[in-house]
Description:
Layout: H1 2-13, H2 17-29, H3 32-41, H4 51-67, H5 74-103, H6 110-116, H7 119-129, H8 133-145, H9 148-157, H10 170-182
Helix pairs in contact: 1-4, 3-4, 5-10, 7-10
Transmembrane segments: 88-105
Keywords: Membrane, Transmembrane, Transmembrane helix
Amino acid sequence: xxxxxxxxxxxxxxxxxxxxxxxxxxxxxxxxxxxxxxxxxxxxxxxxxxxxxxxxxxxxxxxxxxxxxxxxxxxxxxxxxxxxxxxxxxxxxxxxxxxxxxxxxxxxxxxxxxxxxxxxxxxxxxxxxxxxxxxxxxxxxxxxxxxxxxxxxxxxxxxxxxxxxxxxxxxxxxxxxxxxxxx
Length: 183
């Protein structure tokens, strides 16, 4: 909501000019889905961000660009922002649906799935499907409230499956949980 957006506007304001220029360049050159992936997996803040932060950050950057724009036609800018916001939402939904169909139907056809999954992802999809609802609920809660770095630390050091999870498995586990949460 508004409080979350305001929090990320303050976060954006606190970035130095060099960081802002880099982020704005990525924002303007990448599609909304690619920008979200860049923020979560390649930016220098990737360990501090979760999927829930992306839309608020996107809105904060968009507002910053709009505010600093030299264009006097405010109504046109607002319409463009609304269209862009709708495109962002559409693309994020499309992105999630794509990954759902790509990875969630592992029981439809073993032959097809062997082509789509590497052994590692298949292993973690099976692992996730074998977990009970209580275990899934615990992991989802941690996944939603923790940053990527905190969640990784929890998986490797604190959860009851820590002896079966290696650092290289974290991205696969996150991906399986992302897909599960979407649908």
